[in-house]
Amino acid sequence: MNDISQISLNEEYMDIDALPLTQTEIERGTLSNENIQLGALLLACRGYVILRKILTPSLSSDLQDSMTELIEDCLETQRDQTFQDLNKNSKMYKSHKLGVQFWERSSRLRIFPKLVGPFADISITANSLILPILQAALDSSFYCKSVKLPPAKPEAYWVNASKAP
Prior knowledge:
The chain is of the alpha+beta class. It has helices at residues 23-28, 33-46, 57-79, 122-125, 131-138; strands at residues 84-87, 90-94, 101-105, 108-112. Helix content is 33%, strand content 12%. The chain has a four-stranded antiparallel sheet. Mean pLDDT is 77; it is low at 1-9, 82-87 and 153-165.
């Protein structure tokens, strides 16, 4: 019997939390049918899907900076204790600086960021790798409306006009 410390593991293949994307899928901006179905299953079971290496390093950095600023604004607002009681277990806030709605329940913050700045980037709001997973998971109830279409791959983005509000 081999000692587990002697097993050599390739970390790229050991990321069990993330959908196993190939470099070809990332470069083409399309998922294999297997990954679409696996992504839909993960979304249904866990409530989220992790796709690594699909955002540019600069966008990732901008998102991190914006999220840090957003969290700091929310925590500062929360310290001021200006809230509306939703019920005895939660408090609704509107952040002072950014005007973001958030709430606290069971010592956890739930933040609803506005789709501005890096949060409004097309690779976040209508990503060609994410949309097929959502469509497979939500079927006919899925609707995506994006006003920004990238000129390079407009066919990768779509809007289900029959479900328009």
